[in-house]
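Sequence in, structure out.
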Amino acid sequence: MSHSARKSLLRGFGLMAAVIANSAAAQSTGASFVENFDRLDSSFWYVSDGWNNGSHQNCTWSKQQVGIDGGRLQLRFEAKPSGERQYACGEIQTRQRYGYGTFEVRMKAASGSGLNSAFFSYIGPTDKKPHDEIDFEVLGKNTGEVQVNQYISAKGGNEKLVPVAGGADKAFNDYAFIWAKDRLRYYVNGKLVQEVTDPAKIPSNPQKIFVSLWGSDTLKNWMGAFAYAGGARMEVDRIAFTAPGEKCRFPESISCTID
């Protein structure tokens, strides 16, 4: 399966439960926020639980793989039979959708070939919208880089690999994208690493914000051969969204230094 084909299917399976649960909240776009994960607010975050996203994913989303420890979100990947899979993995998503603005995460990725630590925005057919998506993905086969990409009406092919000094799994790093109608900018640790100005390559539909850790034993060309050795964990220190024209929400925000 090509990467583009994989991504077009990735969010098409199993999300109906989340859609039903979030249908009321999805009618309006969310306001600016900073989430420092002192606790997991279930009125704000939906925890994916009890399904997988298709045959390419070798784990079942499980709320047991999501927790808070010391002010950080923990997303775990574990050899634990769950649903149709022999592995369990963790994901959370906002209940609200978010439009143009600045999206930020401070996170430490998991290690291990065949694993994917992701921060992204997404909306799609199960939400009765076209598949639009903006991605940061750290592939465990090479944590010295992060992949940025975006999808517009299910069309991708905009991948770029960006170095992460010191390794995305060795320390916390800051990833951000600033999404506007006519420009999309990606940042890694405060440095601009990709700028998109072609309107045909910029999503337009408000999207939910996700962080997830998952694995695959079939997408070898993209994610590497699956080689789980135990103890895989993704940690998230902060997630934030700042609406256009608003003051930056915390001192380290990219929106404090970028126009």
